């Protein structure tokens, strides 16, 4: 019987944005950026049908996300639920909204621990859609739904959210801690790099596109005396790294890996190494096999949005910029760190126009929450720059 892994959840609770890492036996396996702007998988919503799409056999349902979610009409009809335009409907999010795609919804509600579905449906009668029915509002309940299982311990760098954390993680030990086993910010930055390095000197290039994620393995300068030995060594290292990175970055959908060219038994050895490395992934990716071009294909279920979609602008390559909303929360997080060291100071954020727009738009509640916590107003000044921000006392 396999030994149960110890799970620790680290939470850096910034204004309006929590950054978190799930550790299994001390190693980071999943990373999260939670702002509450999209509905997590497993959440239950009271929505309203805004449009039928007969060609897709689906209906678009407004649930409070930036884009309506999509629910299958045939599935609902089998349960006696009509998805006519304007209808109120209770749905569960099966896949989080990603980029320009709305959430995948279902009218079939799965059981949740401690949740009475009959009471939930009855309470929905008094609400106007869109409305969140489950879980409770807040970043902690949303984050709890994203985890593959309950943590044994939750470590946070801020005492303020401890009551909320105790509600969301009732079985976990909640700890306020300044010293953590990993550098969370460094871990997130590393997981956003397009080309992580291998221990033996090779490189793995990871490119997320709309249709699939393409991964290319480069040997670098192997120390082995033969090209074949160098290729095998680099591919084995790459198989382990790719399995870790898929989970850390939460990459889902079709994945195509271009390992360094091998034939016969050596190719099978790499496939088996990747299969073994993927075994610990709770989403259970499936290896589909080798293509005629010599690429290895696999599929990992899409559930939550990839880490990069929460932080970076759409696109590919090494020069992807941070989203203005990500920079806005980064500025507030940096200001909060400075303010704790200088509680008497007043503060100004100078930022590029897109970041200023984010601070007066989606990040405005976070700005106001930080102002309330500091007990003073924060000045926001637009400056002439492509992106970025700076903070200064005034």
Question: What is the approximate shape?
Answer: globular
- Rg calc: 23 Å
Q: Which band does the percent of strand residues land in?
A: 25-35%
Could you spell the SSE succession in H and E letters?
A: EEEEEEHEEHEHEHEHEEHEHEEHHEHHEE
Task: Please give the alpha-carbon distance between the first and last residues.
Answer: 61 Å
Sheet having the most strands: 6 strands, antiparallel
Report helical residue fraction: 25-40%
Which structural class do you get from the secondary structure elements? Answer: alpha+beta
Uncertain spans, ≥5 residues at pLDDT below 50? Answer: none
What kind of assembly state do the chains in view correspond to?
Answer: single chain
Q: Kindly report the average pLDDT value.
A: 93
Total strands: the figure is: 19
Number of helices: 11
Report on this structure:
- It is a single chain.
- By secondary structure, the chain is an alpha+beta fold.
- Helices cover 29% and strands 27% of the residues.
- It contains 11 helices and 19 strands.
- The strands form 4 sheets. Strands 4, 5, 6, 7, 8 and 9 form a 6-stranded antiparallel beta sheet that branches.
- Strand 2 and strand 3 form a beta hairpin.
- Helix 9 (324-341) runs parallel beside helix 11.
- It is globular, with a radius of gyration of 23 Å.
Compact summary:
The chain is of the alpha+beta class. It is built from 11 helices and 19 strands.
List keywords for this structure.
single chain; 394 residues; alpha+beta; six-stranded antiparallel β-sheet; 11 helices; 19 strands
